[in-house]
Request: fold
Amino acid sequence: MPRKKLGRMRVPPPDEQTARRYLLWMPGKRLYEQPHSFPEISSPTLFGNRRPLEIEVGCGTGEFLCHLASQNPDANFVGFDIHKKSLYKAVRTAASQDLPNILFVSADFRLVYPLLPDSSLRAIHLRFPDPGMKPRERKKRLFDRRLLDESFRSLQSSGCLLVVTDHREYFEEMLALARRDGRWLISNGVKKPSPDEERPVSRFERLWMSRGRPAFWLTLQKPPRESAHAR
Ligand SMILES: C[S@@+](CC[C@H](N)C(=O)[O-])C[C@H]1O[C@@H](n2cnc3c(N)ncnc32)[C@H](O)[C@@H]1O
Reply:
């Protein structure tokens, strides 16, 4: 199924009050030229508390992150995407559950790196990123050396970059890149479709699973501080 088709949704923007609560706009030009004119991505700045923070890069319609937020009230969650209508839908889901610990950011994540404090994130989720196999699309891929560098810098000790994809070739390229990088504790596997499963699934995960496609997962853990010192 062409991925483009999935973007065609009719979703009205949230009302002003809901948008103020759940949606942060970071327009590309200003984010590129003056990143520090935007708030840093941290729990104290965005939520006024010191709870652990997890982010999702390319959160789409936000089901996965809203589920995480509802199941983990002691942590905060921030989702980033460039697709406005998907974010409207994500905001609507968060508002319908009155979630106090989630925020969505309209931004190209590759411009957000300067706003991620060092050693601050508990987890970074990257689920079903666009594989972009054509040469000109490859440049837009989210999983690249820069993502590895910035994730390593911004994750706290033992924090994880958790990646899931339905695309075998992209998965193998990501795994090879992570292995070459050499800084991570790596685990990976394949998850077969299981219609009865109850764990949180994102829109794309549901879609690929309903078509009988397996999902490949890759977890990159930043080594605990003690083991980093021991090396
Ligand atoms: C295939 S969808 C997956 C969405 C969601 N993670 C899921 O599993 O349903 C990929 C998402 O990444 C977003 N995306 C692509 N490039 C991005 C970027 N540079 N910054 C933020 N989001 C991006 C797209 O807009 C799209 O919503």
Remarks:
- The pocket of S-adenosylmethionine is lined by residues 58-60, 80-83, 86, 108-110, 127-130, 142, 202-205 (CB under 6 Å).
- The mean pLDDT is 91.
- The chain has one domain: 15-230.
